[in-house]
Amino acid sequence: MKFANQSGIKVLLVVVVAIAAGAIVAQRNMAAPPPPAESTEVDSPPRVEVVHPRRVTVAQRLQTNATLAAFEKADLFAKVTGYLSDVRVDIGDHVKAGQVLAVIDVPEMEQELAEAKAQLESKQSSLESASRQLDRYKANITFQNALLRRREELGAEGHFISDRTLDEVRAAAEIAKADLSVGEANRALAANQVDVAAATVERIKALLSYRQIVAPFDGVVARRLVNRGDLVQVATTATRTTPSAGSLFTVQRIDTIRVFCDVPENDVPRVHVGDPAIVKPFGFDGKPFMGTVTRFSRRLDPETRNMRTEIDLSNPDERLYPGMYAEVSLEMNRRPGVLSVPTAAIGSDGDGNFVYTIANDRITRLGIQVGLTDNGRVEVAAGLLEETPVVANIRGAPPHGTAVQPLMLSETLVEKSANLFTRSNNSAFATVREESRGQL
């Protein structure tokens, strides 16, 4: 019985294999294409789409990253030591040039000012006394000189004047002259002392004026690092080097924004002031801001070999903020009215760049010299005339010498077909991805 069961299974397997083999053969016979029918007509030459070269404006474009900065920025420090008695602004507040931002209380300096004023008044009194003494010396020398002349005149007229009397008069005149010199020196000294005292008063007044921290220009308070009652110290070289260590406020002018970008060494010779620039800050959904190159450093960083370049953007609505990150497109080496063809029409081989033209209804290779590439078009510097038609797409075109039928296309149709091809490829890729997800 066991042997009979095994024989039945073997027979069944043979039958199944035979049926499967027959099904495969039948499927192949059904899928085989019918024999080709004999051609009764001569094949016509293939059609080739051609376009005429067109004159456009091309430019070399540089895409780079950039950072936005305030047009002016100032860290405000204290020049006197004291306690803050008043803080009048906060971050984000708009301020005008000269507006008081905070006040420092310095009572000991006010006492120094009172003492300096008293000293000035004392020196002014000394000056007045020296001036009056000088006037007396002047009057005395005038008197002594007059007396000496009178004695000498009497002696010349024959009147008796003793030598002793004449010597005494002459000595008195010399003494009066010396006193005048001393008086003039004393007055000059007193005047200098008054000037020193007055300068001291003005110096203390100037220091007291620094009690008020004022805005240097119209702008916005970007940082406030103090509160009322804080002790502030006189700024030193160290605190100025590290603003966060001792500054009270930071004020920025942002009605104009500086956009800083770095231009690589290879592109430096083509950058000029006034070149158009498109700035796209992050956070604006790709909205462009138009500007021009305002200035550049005219030096390359030894470490990066890049040149710092600046673009100024008007910012009246203050939508752009310092510190933002942006993408910049610089348009350099702008060339208007150059002869150009679509990028797809350019080929390249060991002999250089070329295009296909139609001569006597046959594909003809034409060597050319190319220039800039911009917006899907290539500048043709030499080797092509404006009226010469070229094959619109060199990929898949028949080889050199092939007989063809040229089909002239407009540039609009070429651009539309390129866009359609791109969209169809994207749709196909999307379909493949969806099918792959379904299988997974």
Structural commentary:
With 440 residues, the chain is of the alpha+beta class. The protein folds into 4 domains: 65-71 and 257-332, Elongation Factor Tu (Ef-tu), domain 3 (Beta Barrel); 78-103 and 214-247, OB fold (Dihydrolipoamide Acetyltransferase, E2P), CATH 2.40.50.100; 107-209; 337-424, conserved putative lor/sdh protein from methanococcus maripaludis s2 fold. Helix content is 38%, strand content 34%. It has 6 helices and 20 strands. The strands form 4 sheets. Strands 2-9-12-11-10-13 form a 6-stranded antiparallel β-barrel. It has a 4-stranded antiparallel sheet with strand order 6-5-3-8, with no helix packed on it. It has a 3-stranded mixed sheet with strand order 19-1-20, with no helix packed on it. Strand 10 (276-281) and strand 11 (289-300) form a beta hairpin. The longest helix has 50 residues, at 107-156.
